[in-house]
């Protein structure tokens, strides 16, 4: 057995300071901080940690020890900005939990298994379409759209034309998310980034957004709610080449776990989200494009359930923490761990909400079938009528038109109209003329 070598003449400024008074008297307290996480397993920035260190300790020396421990575990991702800086991160327990949840509950194979358990039940299509709408609406609200969720859903379900800029923003986000799904088999390109922006913002306020056009000036900044500048993007000069470098990094496959450069798609997708926000390539609408590209990347890597997982619903409820995760990363030498951990906490909750919605739908199917059998309606209703009746009773949708039934059930307009009118004849639905179309509602007497 060979003994380890004796180390002589090595010097480290941090440890040298620990050997000096008055620090050496509290050496154990200092060395206890030589780890990337706090005692509760959190990856906190300096501003939060400095209040948690024991009284009397030198905060600069404490932070140097934490940074030394983190630096030993850093993984490099890609360079950003001009002059370029490396984006790096530490794989935390929270990120590992999110990766596990994503792999277990959001793959295309898992989604096919889940839908197979329910079977060819048309009401489930309504649930999935409802979840698709959630991301478009909440992403718009996160960017300041003042429309309510109920009004936005009414517009999307009835295919009503938008009446305000806020509603146009919702429609734009809805189109952008569908476009991201349609383009999931395409490699990333600078042109695709521009196209996603154009689809998402065109027709809202074109002079403000310049749809599909990258900024050519340096008068774009990110401000907080009080008008303070919190982020100044890198110069417009060189933006095209920096975006091309980002494109090449994203298109370089790192999916083989047997290779040294393996990187889980969730982490890479979150890095893409951050990079777009950091570069801020458009005059406006950058946040929406960044989130859409995250979804595009997850779709591309066979996590199809993300089409029904609304991350922005949770981001909308915590906009300050969302913004802070950007700022903490930028302030701490582009340590992306802060942003990754926040996004992973959101992903964990969003995936949990999706799986819970599925389980509830499965229970609703069983309970509804029993109710139909007991009420005597089972033999009177067609499969499509049963689907609409169940959707209405569950409250998933409150208004129906032949147009949206046609889209959700995948049938002709005449079949959709006949299905709805059949429910009216059975006195389960009622209809009312609204503008140029008939709108159908569940009769209150049938809800009991």
Describe the model.
By secondary structure, the chain is mainly α. The protein has 20 helices and six strands. The chain folds into three domains: about 30 residues, no CATH class; about 270 residues, Fic-like fold; about 70 residues, Winged helix-like DNA-binding domain superfamily/Winged helix DNA-binding domain (Arc Repressor Mutant, subunit A, Orthogonal Bundle), CATH 1.10.10. Helices cover about 55% and strands about 5% of the residues. The strands form three sheets. It has a two-stranded antiparallel ribbon with strand order 1-2. It has a two-stranded antiparallel ribbon with strand order 3-4. A hairpin with a 5-residue loop joins strand 3 and strand 4. The mean pLDDT is about 85.
N-end to C-end Cα span = 80 Å
CATH class designation of the largest domain = Mainly Alpha
Largest sheet: 2 strands, antiparallel
Judging by the overall fold, what is the CATH architecture of the largest domain? Orthogonal Bundle
- Spatial strand arrangement across the major sheet: 1-2
- Helix/sheet category: mainly alpha
Radius of gyration of CA atoms, rounded to a whole number: 27 Å
Helix share, percent: 55-70%
Fold topology:
Layout: H1 13-18, H2 27-31, H3 46-49, H4 59-71, E1 75-80, E2 85-89, H5 93-105, H6 108-118, H7 122-142, H8 149-158, H9 165-182, H10 190-201, H11 206-209, E3 222-223, E4 229-231, H12 239-251, H13 265-279, H14 286-300, H15 311-317, H16 319-331, H17 337-375, H18 383-394, H19 402-409, H20 413-425, E5 429-434, E6 437-442
Antiparallel strand pairs: 1-2, 3-4, 5-6
């Amino acid at each position: 057995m060979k003994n380890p070598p004796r180390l002589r003449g090595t010097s480290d400024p941090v440890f040298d300071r620990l050997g000096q008074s008055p620090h050496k008297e509290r050496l154990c307290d200092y060395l206890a901080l030589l780890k990337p996480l706090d005692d509760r397993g959190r990856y906190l920035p300096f501003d939060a940690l400095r209040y948690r260190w024991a009284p009397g300790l030198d905060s600069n020396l404490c932070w140097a020890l934490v940074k030394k421990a983190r630096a030993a575990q850093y993984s490099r991702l890609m360079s950003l900005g001009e002059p370029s800086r490396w984006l790096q991160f530490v794989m935390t327990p929270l990120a590992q939990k999110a990766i596990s949840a994503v792999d277990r509950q959001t793959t295309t194979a898992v989604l096919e298994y889940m839908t197979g358990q329910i079977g060819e039940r048309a009401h489930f299509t309504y649930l999935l379409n409802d979840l698709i709408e959630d991301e478009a609406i909440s992403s718009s609200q996160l960017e300041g759209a003042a429309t309510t969720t109920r009004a936005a859903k009414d517009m999307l379900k009835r295919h009503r034309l938008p009446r305000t800029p806020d509603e146009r923003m919702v429609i734009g986000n809805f189109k952008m998310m569908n476009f991201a799904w349609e383009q999931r088999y395409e490699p990333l390109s600078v042109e695709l980034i521009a196209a996603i922006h154009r689809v998402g913002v065109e027709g809202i306020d074109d002079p403000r957004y310049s749809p599909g056009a990258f900024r050519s000036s340096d008068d774009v900044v990110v401000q907080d709610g009080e008008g303070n500048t919190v982020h100044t993007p890198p110069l417009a000069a060189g933006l095209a080449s920096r975006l091309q470098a980002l494109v090449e990094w994203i298109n370089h496959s790192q999916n083989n776990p047997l290779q040294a450069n393996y990187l889980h798609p969730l982490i890479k997708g979150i890095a893409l989200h951050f990079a777009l926000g950091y570069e801020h390539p458009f005059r406006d609408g950058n946040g929406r494009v960044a989130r859409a590209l995250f979804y595009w990347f997850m779709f591309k890597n066979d996590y199809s359930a993300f089409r029904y997982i609304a991350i922005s619903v949770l981001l909308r409820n915590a906009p300050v923490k969302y913004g802070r995760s950007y700022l903490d990363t930028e302030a701490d030498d582009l340590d992306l761990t802060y942003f990754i951990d926040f996004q992973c906490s959101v992903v964990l909750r969003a995936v949990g909400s999706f799986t819970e919605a599925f389980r509830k739908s499965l229970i609703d199917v069983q309970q509804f079938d029993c109710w139909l059998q007991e009420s005597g309606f089972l033999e009177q209703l067609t499969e499509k009528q049963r689907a609409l009746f169940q959707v209405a009773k569950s409250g998933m949708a409150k208004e129906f038109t032949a147009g949206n039934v046609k889209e959700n059930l995948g049938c002709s307009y005449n079949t959709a109209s006949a299905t709805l009118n059949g429910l009216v004849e059975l006195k389960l639905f009622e209809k009312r003329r609204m503008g140029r179309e008939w709108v159908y509602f569940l009769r209150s007497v049938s809800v009991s």
